[in-house]
Design a protein that fits this description.
single chain; 442 residues; seven-stranded mixed β-sheet; 10 helices; alpha/beta
Length: 442
């Protein structure tokens, strides 16, 4: 019988399991036929779990990238796979789910350090405050120094904040008994302007030694352009609360996307990979085949990035968004870019489209970029009722997009292919875009 902590040598039967003296061992991040030195970490009912200690004979697909919290964090779950193979894996993953043509994945030219937003937690280990990444699907903080996906400058800021927390004796928030002050730190960096926002999330409005804390942080990192205190007193897993105070700077950062200028606040939805986002939006514009007489409806419009990108090509854009703060940001972004042919409306997109149908208003094209959970039949039915010539569907989860395409088919809209973009390198996530129209594929 194997024991926890025992180290053995195994040859993988497939990408998940090996056999050792008739015992089955499940091992993450392995490849078929690899020879590995493995430590037994757990016993289940009929098998064991193992952790790779040393790679004796590696598969040709194995990456040489190394992260000291890879197993614990789980955030970049394809880091052990070399980048070209990741693209093939993702394309095959989508193709298994659909009979539609899946085009080759558009690669990320900068597959490391591409994230422009990060959320960090903190904890004490042997009395020392350490910064950490949140393990996937949990609130467990995995201590780290640098992340291969984060901006290096922002990781330096995080480590400084960890030291200042200790220096100023700031109590860390405890989710179980709801005591302590500091909950999280959120950092955003603009890809074009390099402006940096630091959001300090605390559990109550009183922030002792706040001014000195901010002074020390800026002394060590003058590259920070704005600092915000966010107050989240709720018992919730949601990172940000409703109340905010600007402690330094403008309270937002500015970035450029496809030549347009955007003000990004702490709560703004903004794609985490700037360069891939530009490629994705350019493809959406290409698929729409717009002309100067078109009226386009941008649903789930957020702060207006897609609609504003479309505006130069059409007669009019209408952006619809249920979040009132996002609508305010979108209107401001249109104003600072001198875009006069775009209107933003706070409403449920399904309800708004049904009103357009009742009023017999003409819409030539629709753009939709729903959350990971996808859309719903009410939305799809309303979209089809107003009879646009083209619908472009952008998705961060191909499985929900493929599900929704089947619903569109019921209402007479079809697509023949998906275009994947590697927005989230070294993870299993991927962004896809497709064109739906009345013309059924042959």
């Amino acid at each position: 019988m194997l024991k926890k902590g025992q180290i053995i040598e195994v040859t993988m039967l497939d990408d998940q399991k090996a056999i050792y003296q008739d015992d089955v061992i499940y091992i993450n991040n392995a490849f078929k036929n690899e020879i590995l030195k493995v430590m037994i970490t757990n016993k289940t009912k009929n098998a064991y779990d193992g952790k790779i200690i040393k790679i004796i004979q590696a598969d040709k697909m194995r990456s040489r990238l190394v992260c000291n919290v890879y197993e614990e964090c789980g955030g970049c779950n394809l880091l052990h796979v070399d980048y070209p193979s990741q693209l093939m894996i993702k394309q095959k993953m989508i193709q298994k789910q659909t009979k539609l043509k899946v085009n080759p994945v558009v690669k990320n030219d900068h597959d490391l350090h591409y994230r422009n937003k990060m959320i960090l937690g903190f904890k004490k280990i042997k009395g020392k405050v350490v910064a950490g990444l949140y393990a996937e699907d949990s609130h467990q903080v995995c201590p780290y120094q640098y992340c291969l996906l984060h901006d290096k400058q922002c990781d330096d800021i995080v480590q400084t904040i960890a030291r200042l927390i200790a220096d100023f004796k700031i109590e860390l928030y405890n989710e179980d008994n709801r005591t302590g002050l500091l909950r999280h730190v959120l950092i955003r960096k603009a890809a074009v302007t390099n402006e940096i926002m630091v959001v300090i999330v605390i559990s109550k409005s009183n922030f002792p030694s706040r001014n000195n804390f901010i002074k020390e942080l800026l002394l060590k990192h003058p590259e920070i352009t704005t600092i915000i205190q966010n107050i989240n007193s709720r018992s919730t897993s949601i990172v940000l609360g409703d109340e905010e105070r600007v402690l330094y700077g403008k309270g937002y950062i500015v970035d450029y996307l496809l030549g347009n200028k955007y003000q990004i606040s702490s709560k703004s939805f903004y794609q985490i990979n700037h360069d891939q986002c530009e490629k994705l939006y350019s493809k959406a514009i290409e698929l729409l085949k717009l002309n100067k007489n078109d009226v386009v409806l941008d649903t789930y419009c957020g702060i207006g990035t897609i609609g504003i990108s479309l505006a130069p090509y059409v007669k009019k854009v209408i952006g619809v968004e249920i979040n009132g703060k996002a609508v305010m940001d979108a209107k401001n972004n249109a104003r600072i870019n001198n875009i006069n042919n775009i209107t933003f409306i706070k409403d449920d997109a399904s309800d708004y489209m049904y009103k357009l149908y009742q009023n017999m208003e003409k819409i030539d094209a629709i753009v939709m970029d729903p959350p990971r959970s996808g859309s719903n039949e009410k939305f799809i039915r309303s979209a089809c009722k107003i009879d646009p010539k083209r619908i472009v569907y952008i998705s961060c989860d191909p499985s929900t997009q493929i599900r929704d395409i089947r619903i569109f088919n019921k209402y007479g809209y079809y697509c023949d292919q998906l275009y994947p973009f590697d927005m989230f390198s070294h993870t299993t996530h991927i962004e896809t875009v497709c064109l739906l129209s009345r013309k059924a594929p042959v």
